[in-house]
Every structure is written in C-alpha cells, then in structure tokens.
Amino acid sequence: MKIAPIDIAHKTFSRRMMGLDADEVMDFLRKVADEYEAVVRERNTLRESLREKELVISDFRERDDLLKNTITTATKMSEKLQADADREARLIINDANHKAETIVRDARDSLKRIYQEINDLKRLRLQFENNLKAIIQSHLTMLDQAQKIMPNPMIESQLGDVEMKESQEPPAPQSKGIKDQDQLIRHRVSEAISKSL
User: CA-CA distances (angstroms) from residue 187 to 135, 141, 180, 191, 193?
Assistant: First the structure.
C-alpha cells in the first residue's frame, strides 16, 4: 500500500490513556509529510529527467546506428569504386600497351619499307648511271667513228682556205685542229657526265 504525503499529514490516531502529546505527533507527521513530498517530487523530477535522457540516448543510438550503416555503406562503395578504378586502369593500361605495340610494329615495318625503298633507289641510280655512262661511251665511240668516216664541214672550209694558202700553212696544224675539236667535245661530254652525277 502506497502512502502519499497527504496521508501522512492527515493521519489521525486513536487516543489512549497516558498517550502521546497530540500536537507534537502532528508536527512530526507534518515534517515527515513535507520531507516525503520533497522526496516524491525529486523522484518525479529524476524520473522525468531519466525519461528525457533515455529519449536522448535512444536518439543517439539511432544516430549511431545510422552513422554505422552510413560508414559501412561508404566503405563498401569506396571499395567498389576502388575495384572499379583498378579494373578500369588495368583496361586502359592494356589498351595503351596494345596501341603502343601496334605503333612500334607499324613504325618498324615502315622503317623496313623505307630502307628497302632507299636500297631500290640506290640500285636504280647505279643502273641509271651505268646506262648513262654506256650510252655516252657509245655516243663517244660513234663520234670517233663518224670523225673517221665523215669529214667535218669546218675541216672542209679549212681545207678550202688551205688550198688558197697552200704555200703558207703546212697540213700538220689542220690535223691538230681536228684533234683539238675532238678533245673539246670529249671534255664537254665529261663535264656533262660529272654534273649529272
């Protein structure tokens, strides 16, 4: 059975002979009732405070759970992002390596083709030079033969002059003039060959 402070304050006792002082008992009961009321108020205040603290703790627990879940989710997402980034980086590196290998292979093939073309051009140039030398040599031979077979018109005009001046010029210088012309032609042909090479 619960006793309230008001019960203590209004409690009456039966009287007996030689009993206690009624005023003194009532004062004491009022003091006890006041003290008991103060204790009940404090208890109620503490209960209210405890209920508020429990609400705050409950709120903190919810926040803590939410924070833990958020951290767990963030950690998982971070790990997934890291794994995705690693996988993408590996793919990019592999693709770059394949492209680099292709570029190097193409460059080597192109370099081989260029060397082959250079060698072909050198061979063609050598053939051209040899053919040109052969043609020039054959023309020089034909000129030599033509000089032997056909008379030079300049020589004929010189011969006409010679006939007019037979007494003044000996025939030896005429043959020297022919040789000088022949050497001049050979010299010019040689210069043309050296310039073309």
Answer: 16, 14, 10, 6, 10
Overall pTM > 0.90? no
Residue 140 CA to residue 10 CA, distance in Å, equals 161
For residues 102 and 146, what is the distance between their CA atoms, to the nearest angstrom?
64
CA angle centred on 176, ends 175 and 180, rounded to 5°: 120
The CA R_g of the chain, rounded to the nearest whole Å, is 67
User: Rounded CA gap, 154 and 189, in Å?
Assistant: 20
Distances (CA, A) of 1 to 7, 9, 43, 124, 180: 12, 16, 18, 129, 161
Q: How much helix, strand and coil, in percent to the nearest 5, is found in the chain? A: 85, 0, 15
One digit per residue, the tens of pLDDT, for the chain of length 197 reads: 466 667 777 777 666 666 777 777 788 888 888 888 888 899 999 999 999 999 999 999 999 999 999 999 999 999 999 999 999 999 999 999 999 999 999 999 999 999 999 999 999 999 998 998 899 888 888 877 777 766 555 555 554 554 555 444 444 444 455 566 667 777 777 777 666 55
